[in-house]
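Ligand-bound model needed. aspartic acid.
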Amino acid sequence: MNRRVLLAAAAAIGVAAMPFSVLAQAYPTKPITMIVPFAAGGPTDALARVLGQRMSEALGQQIVIENVGGAGGTIGVNKAAKATPDGYTLLFTHMGTLAVNIALYKSLPYDSQKDLEPIGLGGTNPMVLVVKKDLPVKNFAEFQAYVKANQKKVQYGMAGIGAASHLGGLMLNSMMQVEVLEIPYKGTGPALNDLVSGQFDYMVDQAVNVLAQIQAGNIKALGVSTLKPLPQLPGVPTIDATLKGYEVTIWNGFFAPKGTPKEIIAKVDQALLATLADEKIRARLTELAVDVPTPQEATPDGLRALLKASIDKWVPAVKAAGVKPE
Ligand code: ASP
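Prediction:
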């Protein structure tokens, strides 16, 4: 059946009476909502827009981003998990909201492995330790000494419990053995604005969000979270060079509510694969220091395996850092 025949059939018998698999063949026939569980202007939002724009061309329908921030992304993820599984509500989120937060909340309103269907990996992001411009430190060693000397006064920004910036910050603080104040935001887009205007001292956030402000000289980069320096930030050392074993990278992926028809998942995944094969998109992601997934990683099975591996890795690591669940 071609698409026009399907649409005519749907109109004739009423969409409600159409079997799901027939609807799946015609998919998508109207705009798709993509929930981003953080505020607009941050890294998750930025990547959703870069990828979503090209995916909507491949699908022939608009993808409309809905920012649902709060509680470290759990509010937005929960909204997506509970949405009708018809392919018209999808989710673009990161591993903090699906793996890390399991160790940080006494109870979560969703089970990331049972209530969501993985579609494919969208990208993997290094993080950067950034400090406000006038913090009186020039390098990581000076930063560490400053934070130690000013414990309980120094403030770091993060996007709520279980956010990527929370994970980056809590592993750093735990390894430096310091206690500092936490300033929560609905996303690191708004947090970055406040760091630029000097309202708190530091943040560990995805490179995609902070590169432009570092390059403009509005904040200082003191270390990267990967085991190798980033070509996009020449001269910035790894945090691991001082704090052996510090390594945090954050993946972003596409999900659908559990029960979304397999045919729909496959169609969205095809659009993702076409997007990731597009040279312009690949160049843009590289410019933003985002690692482009392999075709295998950008599939439901690839993402399912990555989610499980991330839970296995981060839940014990966060517990070992001594953070109590809230
Ligand atoms: N970077 C944020 C986080 O810390 C999320 C965001 O605003 O995209 O999880």
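The domain at 28-124+250-320 is CATH 3.40.190.150 (D-Maltodextrin-Binding Protein; domain 2).
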